[in-house]
């Protein structure tokens, strides 16, 4: 019965710095018909804790301790003395319970767990931990049999809760190195006050604040992703897409079923790069959980990114429609700001050369920056192929132009792509238009294959 609690406590106490821990409804990929796997698991365990005892639970505890010892936490440059203090809200309270129990302070741990499930009765993992702690307080005569313990361990809902616990701790113990940013964010305009990055391997969403000093990690949250994993390719594959996206709208929870919780933030999947590769589907949202469920299993959605409602509410106050980027990655790589700036400067040379070729009126030179299958989508009209060249030259009319509010988001998988967003103001004018360009690296050169021009 104590498998989750013992494994988490052992993992926590072997980590560096553990001593410092203290309308018509839109359509989503998720149907809302799936029954939550772990919805009743925690409460069932808590209800049955009175029938468990120290004698029975010691067997599970010993096994869990051996398991944790056999798989020590990988030392990481990202670990820091105050890593556990990064947890917030209900998660931070759960981590405090783990730590107290690991230090032999069972009664204080029990008191904190009792308060936690009182305040968040739908937090299934917390309910399970509370049940484990209750089980340590009852007489041995009421112990579960080995068969009963084995049955509980084999319950898929219990397995989901154990994996949730492991991923929460992994993300809190293996922190991004201080002062670093996800490698995709080479440059971000001040018009984007926040940026979001999802690390699927850790079931973690990172929120970064943008200021004149650059990006800074300000919060991170446990999330659930597609039940079939990542790298969405087609409609109905229950996978979460990987790539660079933007928040396209914010859906009022009053217009949604309870299944989506406190609200929903759709993203622009499939983006132009996805379409180019033949990917299909849609309705990918960042959304909350049903009222009876605090969090979902790590792999539980139909492709959306699912957060606890208290966490989503914090996010809803930060995002900007059309301006907040969302990176979803298999595993985030964090780099220093100077490294990101160096890559940004390299790409800036491409943008500058494109701008100068356009201003010169030399269509042959400008053509070198476009793929034959280039497409432009604007509210006024669409253009395909090299017919864009004449349009660009006529639009520029040889005028000097200043690029403002520049953002570069770099994505690497089978190809090397860049999403560049900027505003352009021609000499003598006070305002201009915004462009979002999608570039693809061909050998040593960057080529434009898609552009969005709102307005």
Description:
This protein has 455 residues and is an alpha+beta fold. The chain has 3 domains: 3-173, no CATH class; 181-334, Beta Barrel (L,D-transpeptidase catalytic domain-like); 337-453, Nuclear Transport Factor 2, Chain: A. Helices cover 34% and strands 24% of the residues. It contains 13 helices and 18 strands. The strands form 3 sheets. Strands 3, 4, 5, 6, 7, 8, 9, 10 and 11 form a 9-stranded mixed β-sheet that branches. A 7-stranded mixed β-sheet has the order 2-15-16-17-18-13-14. β4 and β5 (214-226) form a beta hairpin. α1 (3-13) crosses α4 (89-102), α2 packs parallel to α6 (124-135) and α5 (106-119) packs antiparallel against α6 (124-135). The protein is elongated, with a radius of gyration of 25 Å. The N and C termini lie far apart (60 Å). The relative contact order is 0.12.
Give the SSE layout.
Elements (H helix, E strand, L loop, with lengths): L2 H11 L27 H7 L6 H17 L18 H14 L3 H14 L4 H12 L10 H9 L1 H18 L7 E2 L2 E3 L6 E6 L4 E8 L2 E13 L16 E4 L17 E3 L5 H5 L8 E3 L11 E3 L3 E3 L1 H8 L8 E5 L4 E2 L1 H24 L2 H5 L2 E9 L3 E3 L3 H9 L4 E12 L3 E11 L6 E10 L2 E9 L2
Parallel strand pairs: 3-11, 5-9, 8-10, 13-18
Antiparallel strand pairs: 1-12, 2-15, 3-4, 4-5, 5-10, 6-11, 7-8, 13-14, 15-16, 16-17, 17-18
Helix pairs in contact: 1-3, 1-4, 1-8, 2-6, 4-5, 5-6
């Amino acid at each position: 019965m104590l498998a989750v609690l013992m494994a988490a406590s052992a993992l926590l106490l072997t980590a560096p710095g553990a001593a410092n821990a203290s309308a018509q409804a839109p359509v989503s990929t998720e149907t809302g018909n799936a029954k939550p796997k772990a919805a009743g698991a925690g409460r069932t365990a808590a209800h049955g804790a009175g029938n468990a005892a120290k004698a029975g639970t010691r067997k599970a505890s010993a096994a869990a301790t051996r398991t944790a010892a056999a798989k020590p936490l990988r030392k990481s440059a990202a670990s820091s003395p105050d890593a556990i203090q990064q947890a917030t809200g209900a998660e931070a309270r759960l981590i405090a319970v783990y730590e107290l129990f690991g230090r032999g302070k069972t009664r204080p741990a029990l008191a904190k767990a009792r308060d936690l499930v009182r305040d968040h009765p739908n937090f299934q993992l917390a309910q399970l931990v509370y049940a484990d702690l209750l089980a340590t307080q009852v007489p041995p005569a009421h112990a579960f049999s080995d068969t009963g313990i084995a049955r509980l361990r084999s319950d898929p809902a219990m397995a989901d809760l154990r994996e949730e616990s492991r991923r929460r701790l992994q993300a809190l113990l293996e922190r991004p190195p201080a002062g670093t940013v996800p490698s995709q964010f080479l440059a971000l305009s001040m018009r984007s006050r926040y940026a979001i990055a999802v690390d699927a391997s850790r079931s973690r969403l990172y929120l970064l604040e943008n200021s004149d000093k650059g990006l800074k990690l300000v919060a991170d949250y446990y999330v659930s992703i597609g039940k079939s994993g990542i790298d969405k390719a087609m409609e109905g594959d229950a996978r979460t897409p990987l790539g660079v996206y933007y928040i396209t709208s914010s859906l009022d929870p009053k217009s949604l079923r309870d299944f989506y919780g406190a609200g929903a933030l759709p993203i622009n999947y499939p983006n132009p790069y996805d379409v180019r590769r033949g990917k299909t589907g849609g309705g990918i949202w960042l959304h909350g959980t049903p009222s009876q469920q605090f969090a979902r299993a790590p792999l539980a959605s139909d492709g959306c990114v699912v957060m606890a409602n208290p966490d989503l509410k914090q996010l809803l106050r930060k995002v900007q429609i059309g301006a907040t980027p969302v990176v979803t990655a298999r595993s985030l790589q964090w780099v220093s700001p100077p490294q990101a700036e160096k890559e940004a400067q390299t790409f800036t040379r491409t943008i500058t050369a494109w701008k100068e070729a356009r201003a010169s009126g030399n269509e042959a030179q400008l053509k070198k920056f476009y793929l034959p299958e280039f497409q432009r989508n604007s509210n006024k009209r669409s253009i395909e192929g090299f017919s864009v060249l004449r349009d660009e030259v006529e639009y520029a009319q040889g005028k000097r132009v200043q690029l403002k509010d520049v953002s570069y988001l770099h994505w690497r998988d089978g190809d090397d792509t860049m999403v560049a967003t900027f505003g352009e103001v021609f000499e003598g004018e006070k305002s201009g238009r915004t462009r979002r360009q999608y570039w693809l690296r061909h050998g040593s050169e960057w080529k434009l294959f898609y552009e969005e021009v709102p307005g």
